[in-house]
């Protein structure tokens, strides 16, 4: 006899006939999975270029889901109150970011940031639609496991074959295919609960459990080779969270133990090889060490598979009694507590006190030696994060209600920075949203977090069996994302944020009744959904096209084709009227062909759009110096220097002052 969740799942199931795969929901699920995999593997870091096609596909498929729901061909999940609150806060937060264009100190950057949020909203809508599918948590966990496994394999492959990544020759920290080591570390953390979800249950085939342990081992090796302290810390938290809410715990701990043995051996050896862990090494040394690393990696994987296979078969022959499970669990907790106590005692014995840790953490900047190589894992320096957090706090204190505009931290940072580093984000997502969107945006963001957490707890309570286990692995991944966002700028990377919001949508809808609720004005709603999607696609494409036109303008300037440069820059301004880059390129082209009056007007217009941006002041100062000499250019130069005292503008103003 079926229980209630199984009966609901049966109602949501699709036919086993081949044509059922082309029904709206399964077809949408397949497209959504492909977009998630593309986001993980091909997003190229925080670049806007891949976001155009990845985000465009996400928006198009989300619009298709919305239109299908309005015309009655796709069921709408009935969310709980907390689920509705999460969705409402997310939509309102994206809308508030869009409104911040009205007062943003850097509107062109804000527009790009709003587009990124629109893409994440599309991922969330896709997740809600897919969540209505039978076994949706298992579907989402399986596809995310495949995507992360492919990314981890690609990352490790760049160490074995250095020519696969141009970045490998310059920087040793593992970063491909994401482009940023800390975000790759977060992606490997996503893999940990997914690997344990596959490896732990005794119902799995022995070979599959062995493969899952190899997957776990590869993720751990990749994590250590990113040299990401935040990633390692979040991984420990994620594993602890899985042991708290996942099942079975004993088998999870055993799988982790089997994977850790070859992980520590292979990573420990790799840390001793300069071709794998030191920056700017000769290509020949990287190739030599990479080949040996490939051999060590394969041998470690074979060891992990054989160990897991033997242990799984042994357990099947001689199942562990419940009493022994309890004893082992208590012993594991005691061992963990003892390790923490011994570790703290060792730090104190070595003279590493909280005061010294705090002093090291808030140093103005880390030395180069502290931020490269395996030694980075043992460093307590914040690598300027403390300074960035203080700058963001000061920006919020100056604009407490509405902030400075979404995505505008770079201008704040340039004005307040105390060293030569350049940061576009404060590496702390809550603090970033507080400073950029004010208390209103922060409350909406907090609503997403708190309502979402409550809704996820509801999901774990209503799901059972395999769906509950898969959901637990996904919840741990979302928890890891939330924790990691306190020390980095994960929001800029669609490779982790897009899948995270898709998973959130799936979990909010999973196990809930789905039915067609839209009965009136279906045609109007369908047209409205299509119009909103078209507007979102235009919003996504317009700044990107404008940026391409700016590049074309500078290419024309290099060719001394000034008329083409002016035409391209004017086209960029038409596509993106708030783009300062377009106006600066246009003004530069006008000055190059001798129309200094037009150039001055364009630079002045750029100043009026972004008066807190140092670049328009700097460009106009250079124009004035060329026309009227350094004395008349000094005012603009000082205005630029006030907005970037430690950068190019500051040096330029100082040079003009000496000439005067």
Describe the structure.
By secondary structure, this protein is mostly helical. It has 26 helices and two strands. It has helices at 4-12, 24-42, 48-71, 81-99, 107-130, 136-160, 181-199, 206-225, 229-245, 249-270, 274-277, 283-317, 322-349, 354-361, 385-398, 409-416, 429-462, 465-484, 494-509, 522-558, 562-575, 580-592, 596-609, 614-628, 630-643, 648-659; strands at 76-77, 514-515. The relative contact order is 0.12.
Radius of gyration: 27 Å
SSE class: mainly alpha
Multimeric organization: single chain
State which percent range the strand residues make up: under 5%
Shape: globular
Helix content: over 70%
Largest sheet: 2 strands, antiparallel
Number of separate structural domains: 2
From the N-terminal CA to the C-terminal CA, the straight-line distance is 91 Å
Strand order, largest beta sheet:
1-2
Tally of individual helices: 26
Unreliable sequence segments: 4-22, 366-370
**Helix and strand pattern:** HHHEHHHHHHHHHHHHHHHHEHHHHHHH
Q: Overall pLDDT, averaged?
A: 89
Please give the number of β-strands.
2
């Amino acid at each position: 006899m079926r229980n209630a969740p199984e009966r609901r799942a049966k109602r949501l199931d699709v036919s086993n006939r081949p044509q059922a795969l082309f029904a709206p929901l399964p077809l949408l699920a397949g497209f959504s999975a492909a977009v998630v995999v593309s986001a993980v593997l091909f997003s190229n870091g925080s670049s806007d270029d891949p976001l155009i096609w990845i985000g465009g596909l996400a928006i198009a498929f989300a619009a298709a889901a919305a239109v299908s729901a309005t015309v009655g061909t796709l069921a709408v999940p009935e969310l709980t109150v907390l689920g509705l609150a999460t969705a409402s806060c997310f939509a309102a937060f994206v809308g508030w970011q869009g409104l911040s264009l009205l007062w943003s100190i850097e509107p062109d950057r804000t527009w790009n940031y709003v587009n990124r949020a629109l893409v994440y909203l599309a991922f969330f809508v896709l997740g809600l639609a897919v969540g209505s599918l039978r076994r949706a948590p298992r579907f989402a966990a399986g596809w995310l496991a495949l995507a992360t496994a492919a990314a981890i394999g690609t990352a490790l492959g760049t160490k074995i074959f250095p020519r696969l990544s141009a970045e490998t020759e310059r920087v040793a920290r593992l970063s491909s295919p994401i482009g940023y080591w800390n975000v790759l570390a977060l992606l490997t953390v996503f893999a940990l609960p997914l690997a344990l979800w596959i490896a732990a249950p005794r119902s799995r085939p022995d070979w599959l459990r062995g493969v899952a342990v190899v997957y776990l081992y590869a993720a751990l090796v990749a994590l250590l080779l990113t040299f990401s302290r935040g990633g390692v810390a979040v991984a420990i938290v994620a594993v602890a969270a899985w042991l708290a809410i996942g099942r079975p715990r004993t088998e999870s701990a055993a799988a982790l133990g089997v994977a850790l043995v070859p992980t520590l051996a292979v990573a420990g050896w790799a840390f001793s090889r300069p071709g794998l862990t030191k920056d700017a090494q000769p290509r020949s040394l990287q190739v030599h060490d990479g080949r040996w690393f490939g051999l060590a990696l394969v041998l470690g994987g074979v060891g992990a598979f054989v160990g897991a296979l033997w242990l799984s078969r042994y357990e099947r022959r001689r199942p562990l009694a419940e009493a022994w499970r309890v004893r082992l669990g208590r012993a594991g907790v005691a061992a963990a507590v003892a390790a923490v106590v011994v570790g703290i005692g060792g730090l104190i014995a070595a003279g590493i006190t909280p005061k010294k840790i705090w002093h090291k953490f808030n140093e103005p900047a880390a030395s180069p030696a502290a931020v490269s190589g395996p030694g980075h894992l043992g460093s307590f320096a914040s690598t300027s994060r403390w300074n960035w957090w203080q700058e963001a706090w000061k920006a919020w204190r100056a604009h407490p209600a509405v902030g400075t505009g979404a995505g505008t931290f770079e201008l704040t940072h340039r004005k307040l920075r105390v060293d030569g580093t350049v940061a576009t984000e404060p590496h702390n997502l809550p603090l970033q949203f507080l400073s950029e969107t004010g208390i209103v945006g922060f409350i909406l963001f907090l609503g997403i977090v708190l309502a979402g957490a409550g809704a996820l707890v509801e999901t774990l309570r209503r799901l059972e069996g395999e769906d509950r286990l898969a959901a637990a692995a996904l919840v741990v991944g979302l928890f890891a994302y939330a924790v990691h966002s306190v020390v980095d700028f994960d929001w800029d990377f669609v490779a982790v944020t897009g899948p995270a919001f898709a998973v959130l949508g799936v979990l909010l809808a999973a196990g809930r009744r789905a039915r067609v609720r839209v009965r009136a004005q279906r045609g109007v709603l369908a047209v409205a959904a299509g119009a909103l999607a078209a507007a979102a696609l235009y919003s996504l494409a317009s700044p990107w096209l404008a940026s391409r036109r700016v590049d074309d303008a500078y290419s024309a300037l290099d060719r001394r084709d000034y008329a083409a440069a002016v035409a391209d820059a004017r086209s960029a301004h038409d596509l993106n009227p708030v783009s300062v880059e377009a106006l600066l390129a246009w003004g530069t082209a006008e000055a190059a062909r001798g129309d200094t009056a037009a150039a001055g007007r364009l630079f002045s217009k750029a100043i009026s759009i972004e008066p807190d941006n140092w670049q328009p002041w700097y460009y106009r100062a250079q124009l004035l110096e060329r026309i009227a000499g350094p004395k008349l250019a000094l005012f603009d130069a000082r205005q630029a220097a006030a907005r970037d005292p430690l950068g190019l503008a500051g040096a330029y103003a100082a040079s003009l002052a000496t000439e005067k």
